[in-house]
Amino acid sequence: MSEKFDAIIVGAGPAGSAAAYSLAKMGFNVLMVERGKYPGAKNVMGGRMYAYALNRLIPDFWKEAPVERCVTREKLTLLSEKSSVTLDFQDNELLEPPNSFTILRAKFDQWFANKAVEAGATLIPNIRVDDLLWKDKRVVGIVAGTDKLEANVVIAADGAVSLMAEKAGLKKFLAKEFAIGMKEIIEFSGKTIEDRFNLASEEGAAQLFIGQCTKQIPGGAFIYTNKTSLSLGIVVYINQLIESKVEAYELMREFNSNPAIAKLIAGGKIVEYSAHVIPESSRTGLFTDGLLVVGDAAGLLVNSGITLMGMDMAIASGMAAAEAVKIAIGKNDFLKKSLSYYEYLLKNDFVLADMHTFKRSPKFLQNTRLYSLYPELACKLFHRLALVKGPKKRLFDEFLEETKGKKIQIIRDLIKGLRSL
Ligand SMILES: Cc1cc2nc3c(=O)[nH]c(=O)nc-3n(C[C@H](O)[C@H](O)[C@H](O)COP(=O)(O)OP(=O)(O)OC[C@H]3O[C@@H](n4cnc5c(N)ncnc54)[C@H](O)[C@@H]3O)c2cc1C
Fold it and tell me: I need a labelling partner for 232 at 20 to 30 A (CA). Which of 140, 163, 248, 277 fits?
């Protein structure tokens, strides 16, 4: 292949496909290179995508995309060893228009990349990009094995551990900025899922867990309901996992055998297991001469405790990158100053606005009391409320007794939490 492309996109995840689809629709000559056998083959996520970003690119996408269930039920469970407290929020307004969907990446990424191909982009799967091609200190293409391919702009959409951002000198990897996520897909009949999660057909649940499930290591666990399977997993900060000397597989095993979880997954068949890193607080430079960085590769992800937004950040940043490339092509200027329009677009959209709003959340979420003291406290309080064994105390007195010597700390954490999440 000796032709020069308007843009080469490295990685066919949601960020890459959003950029490729947008540029192809604008009529540009786009190549997307993916190392997996097919888009989505190597991709891992919890399983919930908010609809907002993709709906702006492909209105009513859910009518054609392989989405699983529309999430109408949100649950947060605080787990101790023997008991659990669950907040259960149900809102049918989350259906119309749909707020979020559970998805399976192997199907979804193929569909999305195929949309880009239908729009005119070229997709080459099964090829790993090894390096960037440089000329006069400017990125002018990619190197894959012995092949060198040229483009006006390269878009690095190669995920959390972005080789392209590293090669461009835009990123240094620090373990403390990353979390690791482990995930299983467990098969059931649709009816079993609907019965166990109290759902109508097509409706879905997203359930998050904190406490005992991570053995006090900052992080949490999740279950998302698909049509005929559950996506279940654990996310923990890498540094703290290493320090704790706990094996990752042990966390999964114990989570699955916790009484609150065991009954939800009883009788299911594990059909897939995977693990991947998450850039919890790993920001990178967004552009350099001839290169833009999008999605996880740029560390564009928000975890506000309940809401994990990685997919929509990836899609919105891919769209913004395409817009910036269009303007750069119009000016025939692919140097930093021209490509900085990408950052301007992100600042004026929810991407960098949300990153700014929740900038304190990664630090706050590493507070170990969130995973030990508070879930234990909630479980103990509810235990006392539920138990009838002689004279009972009022809730407030139970609370005072359970929090003896810890009240100032609790108030401090509460204030920090309200300022961070
Ligand atoms: C366990 C877990 C749970 C998560 N849960 C959620 C969730 O519920 N909701 C949510 O919104 N987000 C979630 N996320 C985050 C979400 O998965 C990411 O934010 C999102 O996938 C980012 O998309 P991306 O396109 O930037 O990167 P990716 O999806 O990682 O795509 C990168 C692509 O680049 C390809 N690639 C990498 N290197 C090369 C190379 N050298 N050459 C060619 N191709 C390459 C990869 O194969 C991949 O296809 C979760 C992540 C994990 C790990």
Answer: 163
- What are phi and psi for residue 122, nearest 5 degrees? -100, 130
User: Rounded to whole angstroms, how far apart are CA atoms 38 and 246?
Assistant: 34
Does 12 sit in the ligand 1 pocket, CB within 6 Å? yes
pLDDT at position 282 is 75
CB of 36 closer than 6 A to ligand 1? Answer: yes
Tens of pLDDT, residue by residue over 353-409, are 999 999 999 889 989 999 999 999 999 999 988 999 888 888 889 889 889 999 999
Cβ–ligand 1 contact at 153 (below 6 Å): no
CA of 170 to the centre of ligand 1 (A): 19
- Ligand 1 pocket, residue 149 CB under 6 Å: no
Nearest to 318 by CA among 158, 209, 196, 142: 158
Other C-beta atoms lying within 10 Å of the C-beta of residue 379: 20
Q: How far is Cα 335 from Cα 332, in angstroms, rounded to an integer?
A: 9
Instruction: Report the nearest-CA residue for atom 52 of ligand 1.
Output: 45
Q: Yes or no: say if 187 and 268 are a contact pair by the CB < 8 Å rule.
A: yes
Q: How far apart are CA 314 and CA 242, in angstroms?
A: 28
Which positions of the chain have pLDDT values less than 50?
none
Please indicate whether residue 68, judged by its CB atom, sits closer than 6 Å to ligand 1: no
**What CA–CA distances, in Å, run from 92 to 14, 67, 200, 242?**
27, 18, 11, 41
Return the residue whose CA atom lies nearest to atom 45 of ligand 1: 11
Does residue 314 have its Cβ closer than 6 Å to ligand 1?
yes
Question: Using one digit for the tens of pLDDT, what is the confidence trace for 130-154?
Answer: 999 999 999 999 999 999 999 999 9
